[in-house]
Task: structure prediction
Amino acid sequence: MTILVTGGCGFIGSNFILEWLAQSDEAVINVDCLTYAANPKNLVSLAGSNRYRHVHCSIGDGDRISALLAENEVRAVVNFAAESHVDRSILGPAAFVETNVVGTMRLLDAVRGYYDGLAADARARFRFVHVSTDEVYGTLTPEARPFREGDPYRPNSPYAASKAASDHLVRAYRETYGLPTLTTNCSNNYGPYHFPEKLIPLVILNAIAGKALPIYGDGLNVRDWLYVSDHCAAIRLVLERGRVGETYNIGGSSEMTNLAVVNEICAVLDAQRPALRPYADQITFVRDRPGHDRRYAVDAGKIRAELGWRPTETFASGIRKTVAWNLANETWIADVTSGAYRSWIARQYA
Ligand code: NAD
Ligand code: TYD
Result:
Protein backbone atom coordinates (compact mmCIF):
# COMPACT_ATOMS: atom_id res chain seq x y z
CA MET A 1 0.00 0.00 0.00
CA THR A 2 1.02 3.62 -0.50
CA ILE A 3 0.14 6.85 1.23
CA LEU A 4 0.48 10.29 -0.36
CA VAL A 5 1.84 13.01 1.93
CA THR A 6 1.81 16.66 0.87
CA GLY A 7 4.30 19.23 2.18
CA GLY A 8 6.68 16.47 3.29
CA CYS A 9 9.81 18.60 2.83
CA GLY A 10 8.67 21.02 5.56
CA PHE A 11 9.14 20.77 9.30
CA ILE A 12 6.32 18.47 10.44
CA GLY A 13 5.97 16.59 7.14
CA SER A 14 9.68 15.60 7.19
CA ASN A 15 9.39 14.26 10.71
CA PHE A 16 6.19 12.42 9.76
CA ILE A 17 7.74 10.73 6.71
CA LEU A 18 10.93 9.69 8.53
CA GLU A 19 8.90 8.16 11.35
CA TRP A 20 6.40 6.55 8.96
CA LEU A 21 9.08 4.75 6.96
CA ALA A 22 10.85 3.66 10.15
CA GLN A 23 7.66 2.17 11.60
CA SER A 24 5.68 0.81 8.65
CA ASP A 25 6.20 -1.19 5.44
CA GLU A 26 4.05 1.16 3.40
CA ALA A 27 5.53 3.43 0.73
CA VAL A 28 5.23 7.24 0.77
CA ILE A 29 4.86 9.65 -2.12
CA ASN A 30 5.77 13.16 -1.02
CA VAL A 31 4.15 15.92 -3.08
CA ASP A 32 5.99 19.15 -2.28
CA CYS A 33 6.54 22.14 -4.58
CA LEU A 34 9.57 23.26 -2.51
CA THR A 35 8.75 26.75 -1.27
CA TYR A 36 11.30 28.68 0.82
CA ALA A 37 10.17 26.60 3.85
CA ALA A 38 11.07 23.26 2.25
CA ASN A 39 14.32 21.42 2.67
CA PRO A 40 14.61 18.17 0.70
CA LYS A 41 17.85 17.47 2.57
CA ASN A 42 15.72 16.68 5.65
CA LEU A 43 15.00 13.41 3.85
CA VAL A 44 18.47 12.71 2.47
CA SER A 45 18.66 9.53 4.57
CA LEU A 46 15.91 8.09 2.34
CA ALA A 47 17.93 8.40 -0.88
CA GLY A 48 17.84 5.06 -2.65
CA SER A 49 14.83 3.81 -0.71
CA ASN A 50 12.30 2.07 -2.97
CA ARG A 51 9.53 3.08 -0.55
CA TYR A 52 10.04 6.84 -0.84
CA ARG A 53 9.58 9.23 -3.75
CA HIS A 54 9.48 13.03 -3.85
CA VAL A 55 7.39 14.59 -6.60
CA HIS A 56 8.07 18.27 -7.24
CA CYS A 57 4.48 19.41 -7.68
CA SER A 58 1.94 21.78 -6.14
CA ILE A 59 -1.20 20.54 -4.40
CA GLY A 60 -2.95 22.93 -6.81
CA ASP A 61 -1.91 20.80 -9.83
CA GLY A 62 -5.03 18.64 -9.94
CA ASP A 63 -4.12 16.68 -13.10
CA ARG A 64 -0.75 15.64 -11.73
CA ILE A 65 -2.20 14.67 -8.34
CA SER A 66 -4.98 12.65 -10.03
CA ALA A 67 -2.39 10.72 -12.05
CA LEU A 68 -0.22 10.07 -8.96
CA LEU A 69 -3.19 8.77 -6.97
CA ALA A 70 -4.28 6.38 -9.70
CA GLU A 71 -0.82 5.14 -10.74
CA ASN A 72 0.14 4.32 -7.14
CA GLU A 73 -3.20 3.01 -5.84
CA VAL A 74 -2.93 5.41 -2.91
CA ARG A 75 -4.94 4.33 0.15
CA ALA A 76 -4.66 7.60 2.14
CA VAL A 77 -3.67 11.26 1.76
CA VAL A 78 -2.18 13.29 4.62
CA ASN A 79 -2.24 17.00 3.80
CA PHE A 80 0.52 19.03 5.48
CA ALA A 81 1.21 21.40 2.55
CA ALA A 82 0.59 25.01 3.51
CA GLU A 83 2.03 28.44 3.92
CA SER A 84 2.53 28.32 7.68
CA HIS A 85 4.17 31.47 9.08
CA VAL A 86 1.87 34.07 10.69
CA ASP A 87 4.34 36.96 10.24
CA ARG A 88 4.64 36.27 6.50
CA SER A 89 0.84 36.14 6.23
CA ILE A 90 0.66 39.63 7.73
CA LEU A 91 3.04 40.99 5.09
CA GLY A 92 1.48 39.07 2.19
CA PRO A 93 -1.81 37.17 2.60
CA ALA A 94 -2.21 36.25 -1.10
CA ALA A 95 0.11 33.22 -1.05
CA PHE A 96 -1.81 31.89 1.97
CA VAL A 97 -5.13 32.06 0.14
CA GLU A 98 -3.57 30.58 -2.99
CA THR A 99 -2.08 27.51 -1.28
CA ASN A 100 -4.11 26.98 1.86
CA VAL A 101 -7.53 27.70 0.35
CA VAL A 102 -7.38 27.31 -3.44
CA GLY A 103 -4.65 24.64 -3.31
CA THR A 104 -6.55 22.59 -0.73
CA MET A 105 -9.71 22.82 -2.83
CA ARG A 106 -7.87 21.59 -5.95
CA LEU A 107 -6.33 18.76 -3.95
CA LEU A 108 -9.75 17.80 -2.58
CA ASP A 109 -11.17 17.80 -6.12
CA ALA A 110 -8.43 15.48 -7.38
CA VAL A 111 -8.87 13.15 -4.39
CA ARG A 112 -12.62 13.14 -4.83
CA GLY A 113 -12.34 12.11 -8.50
CA TYR A 114 -9.98 9.28 -7.54
CA TYR A 115 -12.11 8.16 -4.58
CA ASP A 116 -15.28 8.04 -6.70
CA GLY A 117 -13.58 5.63 -9.11
CA LEU A 118 -12.38 3.17 -6.46
CA ALA A 119 -13.90 -0.27 -5.88
CA ALA A 120 -16.08 -0.62 -2.77
CA ASP A 121 -13.39 -2.22 -0.57
CA ALA A 122 -10.82 0.44 -1.48
CA ARG A 123 -13.38 3.18 -0.81
CA ALA A 124 -14.10 1.72 2.61
CA ARG A 125 -10.38 1.84 3.45
CA PHE A 126 -9.57 5.26 1.97
CA ARG A 127 -8.89 8.29 4.24
CA PHE A 128 -8.04 11.98 3.74
CA VAL A 129 -6.38 13.51 6.82
CA HIS A 130 -6.14 17.30 6.87
CA VAL A 131 -3.51 18.71 9.23
CA SER A 132 -4.63 22.01 10.70
CA THR A 133 -3.97 24.32 13.61
CA ASP A 134 -5.50 25.50 16.89
CA GLU A 135 -5.12 29.07 15.57
CA VAL A 136 -8.44 28.71 13.69
CA TYR A 137 -10.24 29.14 17.04
CA GLY A 138 -8.74 32.59 17.66
CA THR A 139 -7.50 33.82 21.01
CA LEU A 140 -8.33 32.94 24.66
CA THR A 141 -8.49 35.14 27.75
CA PRO A 142 -6.21 34.01 30.63
CA GLU A 143 -9.07 32.41 32.55
CA ALA A 144 -10.92 30.76 29.62
CA ARG A 145 -10.98 26.96 29.24
CA PRO A 146 -8.84 25.50 26.43
CA PHE A 147 -10.36 25.13 22.95
CA ARG A 148 -12.57 22.10 22.31
CA GLU A 149 -13.71 20.58 19.03
CA GLY A 150 -16.93 22.33 18.08
CA ASP A 151 -15.89 25.71 19.46
CA PRO A 152 -16.56 28.50 16.94
CA TYR A 153 -13.84 29.46 14.49
CA ARG A 154 -12.61 33.04 15.08
CA PRO A 155 -9.31 33.30 13.17
CA ASN A 156 -7.37 36.54 13.67
CA SER A 157 -4.39 36.35 11.30
CA PRO A 158 -4.50 35.83 7.52
CA TYR A 159 -2.71 32.50 8.15
CA ALA A 160 -5.36 31.36 10.63
CA ALA A 161 -8.17 32.57 8.34
CA SER A 162 -6.76 30.63 5.39
CA LYS A 163 -6.41 27.45 7.50
CA ALA A 164 -9.96 27.95 8.80
CA ALA A 165 -11.21 28.18 5.21
CA SER A 166 -9.36 24.99 4.31
CA ASP A 167 -10.91 23.19 7.30
CA HIS A 168 -14.35 24.32 6.15
CA LEU A 169 -13.69 23.02 2.63
CA VAL A 170 -12.57 19.66 4.00
CA ARG A 171 -15.76 19.46 6.06
CA ALA A 172 -17.87 20.45 3.04
CA TYR A 173 -16.31 17.74 0.83
CA ARG A 174 -17.26 15.21 3.52
CA GLU A 175 -20.82 16.48 3.90
CA THR A 176 -21.48 17.15 0.20
CA TYR A 177 -19.52 14.46 -1.63
CA GLY A 178 -19.02 11.83 1.07
CA LEU A 179 -15.21 12.05 0.97
CA PRO A 180 -13.86 10.20 4.07
CA THR A 181 -12.05 13.13 5.69
CA LEU A 182 -10.63 13.71 9.18
CA THR A 183 -9.17 16.99 10.45
CA THR A 184 -6.62 17.56 13.21
CA ASN A 185 -6.15 20.95 14.95
CA CYS A 186 -2.80 20.99 16.70
CA SER A 187 -1.04 23.48 18.95
CA ASN A 188 2.48 24.90 18.34
CA ASN A 189 5.07 22.26 17.44
CA TYR A 190 8.84 22.29 18.00
CA GLY A 191 11.66 19.82 17.39
CA PRO A 192 14.18 18.75 14.71
CA TYR A 193 14.08 20.32 11.20
CA HIS A 194 12.14 23.38 12.43
CA PHE A 195 12.75 26.28 10.04
CA PRO A 196 14.39 29.12 12.03
CA GLU A 197 11.84 31.81 11.23
CA LYS A 198 9.61 30.45 14.04
CA LEU A 199 10.22 31.40 17.68
CA ILE A 200 12.02 28.36 19.11
CA PRO A 201 14.59 27.61 16.36
CA LEU A 202 15.13 31.35 15.78
CA VAL A 203 16.01 31.87 19.43
CA ILE A 204 18.39 28.88 19.51
CA LEU A 205 20.11 30.09 16.35
CA ASN A 206 20.39 33.72 17.44
CA ALA A 207 21.58 32.74 20.89
CA ILE A 208 24.56 30.73 19.68
CA ALA A 209 25.35 33.42 17.08
CA GLY A 210 25.51 36.05 19.87
CA LYS A 211 22.53 37.95 18.39
CA ALA A 212 19.47 39.52 20.02
CA LEU A 213 16.64 37.18 21.06
CA PRO A 214 13.58 39.13 19.83
CA ILE A 215 10.46 38.88 21.98
CA TYR A 216 7.34 40.54 20.60
CA GLY A 217 5.44 42.94 22.87
CA ASP A 218 5.58 42.10 26.60
CA GLY A 219 6.45 38.41 26.05
CA LEU A 220 3.39 37.28 28.00
CA ASN A 221 1.52 35.74 25.05
CA VAL A 222 0.85 32.08 25.79
CA ARG A 223 1.25 29.08 23.47
CA ASP A 224 0.66 25.36 24.15
CA TRP A 225 3.82 23.57 22.95
CA LEU A 226 4.00 20.02 21.60
CA TYR A 227 7.09 18.05 20.57
CA VAL A 228 6.78 17.24 16.86
CA SER A 229 7.01 13.44 17.15
CA ASP A 230 4.06 13.48 19.57
CA HIS A 231 2.08 15.31 16.86
CA CYS A 232 3.15 12.76 14.23
CA ALA A 233 2.05 9.89 16.50
CA ALA A 234 -1.35 11.54 16.93
CA ILE A 235 -1.77 11.91 13.15
CA ARG A 236 -0.93 8.22 12.62
CA LEU A 237 -3.59 7.27 15.18
CA VAL A 238 -6.19 9.53 13.57
CA LEU A 239 -5.38 8.02 10.17
CA GLU A 240 -5.69 4.43 11.40
CA ARG A 241 -8.48 4.65 13.97
CA GLY A 242 -10.08 8.09 13.85
CA ARG A 243 -13.79 8.34 13.12
CA VAL A 244 -14.47 9.59 9.60
CA GLY A 245 -15.90 13.10 9.51
CA GLU A 246 -14.54 13.99 12.96
CA THR A 247 -12.05 16.65 14.02
CA TYR A 248 -9.44 16.03 16.73
CA ASN A 249 -7.65 18.66 18.80
CA ILE A 250 -4.02 17.81 19.60
CA GLY A 251 -2.03 19.67 22.25
CA GLY A 252 0.73 19.21 24.76
CA SER A 253 -1.12 20.67 27.78
CA SER A 254 2.07 22.65 28.09
CA GLU A 255 1.06 26.31 28.19
CA MET A 256 3.92 28.78 28.53
CA THR A 257 4.48 32.47 27.99
CA ASN A 258 6.94 33.31 25.23
CA LEU A 259 9.24 34.82 27.84
CA ALA A 260 9.25 31.55 29.82
CA VAL A 261 9.99 29.58 26.62
CA VAL A 262 12.94 31.80 25.74
CA ASN A 263 14.30 31.70 29.29
CA GLU A 264 14.07 27.89 29.27
CA ILE A 265 15.96 27.70 25.95
CA CYS A 266 18.64 29.98 27.41
CA ALA A 267 18.97 27.80 30.52
CA VAL A 268 19.33 24.65 28.40
CA LEU A 269 21.95 26.37 26.22
CA ASP A 270 23.81 27.55 29.34
CA ALA A 271 24.07 23.86 30.30
CA GLN A 272 24.73 22.36 26.84
CA ARG A 273 27.00 25.07 25.41
CA PRO A 274 28.17 27.42 28.17
CA ALA A 275 29.21 30.90 27.03
CA LEU A 276 30.97 33.74 28.86
CA ARG A 277 27.66 35.21 30.03
CA PRO A 278 24.13 33.78 30.41
CA TYR A 279 22.29 33.59 27.08
CA ALA A 280 19.28 35.32 28.68
CA ASP A 281 21.33 38.56 28.59
CA GLN A 282 20.59 38.60 24.82
CA ILE A 283 16.79 38.87 25.31
CA THR A 284 15.41 41.99 23.60
CA PHE A 285 11.80 43.19 23.55
CA VAL A 286 10.72 44.33 20.08
CA ARG A 287 7.62 45.79 18.43
CA ASP A 288 4.56 43.54 18.82
CA ARG A 289 2.99 41.54 15.99
CA PRO A 290 -0.26 43.19 14.72
CA GLY A 291 -3.33 41.21 15.86
CA HIS A 292 -1.09 39.07 18.10
CA ASP A 293 -3.26 36.35 19.68
CA ARG A 294 -2.81 36.48 23.45
CA ARG A 295 -3.30 32.84 24.31
CA TYR A 296 -3.82 29.46 22.62
CA ALA A 297 -4.56 26.28 24.54
CA VAL A 298 -6.08 23.02 23.38
CA ASP A 299 -8.19 20.45 25.22
CA ALA A 300 -6.90 17.12 23.88
CA GLY A 301 -9.45 15.11 25.88
CA LYS A 302 -11.23 13.71 22.80
CA ILE A 303 -8.17 12.15 21.12
CA ARG A 304 -7.01 10.90 24.53
CA ALA A 305 -10.35 9.23 25.28
CA GLU A 306 -11.11 7.87 21.80
CA LEU A 307 -7.66 6.92 20.51
CA GLY A 308 -5.57 6.65 23.67
CA TRP A 309 -3.11 9.34 22.52
CA ARG A 310 -0.86 11.07 25.04
CA PRO A 311 2.26 13.17 24.55
CA THR A 312 5.44 11.37 25.55
CA GLU A 313 7.62 14.48 25.95
CA THR A 314 7.26 17.27 28.48
CA PHE A 315 8.42 20.73 27.41
CA ALA A 316 11.54 20.28 29.58
CA SER A 317 12.53 16.99 27.91
CA GLY A 318 11.52 18.06 24.39
CA ILE A 319 13.40 21.36 24.49
CA ARG A 320 16.59 19.63 25.70
CA LYS A 321 16.39 17.30 22.67
CA THR A 322 15.62 20.21 20.35
CA VAL A 323 18.54 22.34 21.53
CA ALA A 324 20.87 19.32 21.29
CA TRP A 325 19.64 18.60 17.74
CA ASN A 326 20.33 22.18 16.66
CA LEU A 327 23.80 22.14 18.21
CA ALA A 328 24.59 18.85 16.44
CA ASN A 329 23.28 19.97 13.04
CA GLU A 330 25.09 23.17 12.21
CA THR A 331 25.44 22.17 8.53
CA TRP A 332 21.67 21.83 8.23
CA ILE A 333 21.28 25.27 9.82
CA ALA A 334 23.90 26.83 7.54
CA ASP A 335 22.01 25.39 4.53
CA VAL A 336 18.65 26.86 5.49
CA THR A 337 19.96 30.26 6.57
CA SER A 338 21.42 31.38 3.26
CA GLY A 339 20.31 34.37 1.09
CA ALA A 340 16.50 34.36 1.14
CA TYR A 341 16.41 33.61 4.87
CA ARG A 342 18.73 36.51 5.69
CA SER A 343 16.58 38.89 3.59
CA TRP A 344 13.50 37.80 5.54
CA ILE A 345 15.19 38.35 8.90
CA ALA A 346 16.51 41.76 7.83
CA ARG A 347 13.03 42.82 6.70
CA GLN A 348 11.08 41.41 9.65
CA TYR A 349 13.38 42.64 12.44
CA ALA A 350 14.51 45.94 10.87
P1 NAD B 1 6.33 24.31 6.88
O1 NAD B 1 6.12 25.71 6.44
O2 NAD B 1 7.58 23.95 7.61
O3 NAD B 1 6.26 23.34 5.60
C1 NAD B 1 5.27 23.46 4.63
C2 NAD B 1 5.68 22.58 3.43
O4 NAD B 1 4.61 22.64 2.47
C3 NAD B 1 6.95 23.06 2.72
O5 NAD B 1 7.80 21.96 2.46
C4 NAD B 1 6.43 23.67 1.42
O6 NAD B 1 7.35 23.56 0.33
C5 NAD B 1 5.18 22.83 1.18
N1 NAD B 1 4.21 23.54 0.34
C6 NAD B 1 3.77 24.83 0.49
N2 NAD B 1 2.90 25.12 -0.49
C7 NAD B 1 2.75 23.99 -1.25
C8 NAD B 1 1.96 23.66 -2.39
N3 NAD B 1 1.16 24.56 -2.97
N4 NAD B 1 2.07 22.42 -2.88
C9 NAD B 1 2.90 21.49 -2.33
N5 NAD B 1 3.67 21.76 -1.26
C10 NAD B 1 3.59 22.99 -0.72
O7 NAD B 1 5.05 23.91 7.72
P2 NAD B 1 4.93 22.98 9.02
O8 NAD B 1 5.27 23.76 10.22
O9 NAD B 1 5.63 21.70 8.74
O10 NAD B 1 3.35 22.74 9.05
C11 NAD B 1 2.76 21.66 8.31
C12 NAD B 1 1.25 21.75 8.46
O11 NAD B 1 0.91 21.64 9.84
C13 NAD B 1 0.64 23.05 7.96
O12 NAD B 1 -0.57 22.75 7.31
C14 NAD B 1 0.39 23.85 9.22
O13 NAD B 1 -0.70 24.71 9.07
C15 NAD B 1 0.09 22.74 10.21
N6 NAD B 1 0.42 23.04 11.61
C16 NAD B 1 1.66 23.50 11.95
C17 NAD B 1 1.97 23.75 13.29
C18 NAD B 1 3.34 24.24 13.71
O14 NAD B 1 3.53 24.58 14.89
N7 NAD B 1 4.33 24.28 12.82
C19 NAD B 1 1.00 23.53 14.28
C20 NAD B 1 -0.27 23.05 13.89
C21 NAD B 1 -0.54 22.80 12.55
P1 TYD C 1 5.62 31.48 15.99
O1 TYD C 1 6.72 30.50 16.23
O2 TYD C 1 5.71 32.39 14.82
O3 TYD C 1 4.26 30.64 16.00
P2 TYD C 1 2.71 31.17 16.01
O4 TYD C 1 2.67 32.60 15.65
O5 TYD C 1 2.11 30.30 14.95
O6 TYD C 1 2.20 30.87 17.39
O7 TYD C 1 5.47 32.39 17.30
C1 TYD C 1 5.25 31.81 18.57
C2 TYD C 1 5.06 32.95 19.56
O8 TYD C 1 6.30 33.66 19.66
C3 TYD C 1 4.05 33.97 19.10
O9 TYD C 1 3.35 34.46 20.26
C4 TYD C 1 4.88 35.09 18.50
C5 TYD C 1 6.16 35.03 19.31
N1 TYD C 1 7.40 35.41 18.61
C6 TYD C 1 8.27 36.32 19.22
O10 TYD C 1 8.02 36.81 20.34
N2 TYD C 1 9.42 36.65 18.56
C7 TYD C 1 9.74 36.14 17.34
O11 TYD C 1 10.80 36.51 16.77
C8 TYD C 1 8.84 35.20 16.72
C9 TYD C 1 9.14 34.61 15.38
C10 TYD C 1 7.68 34.87 17.42
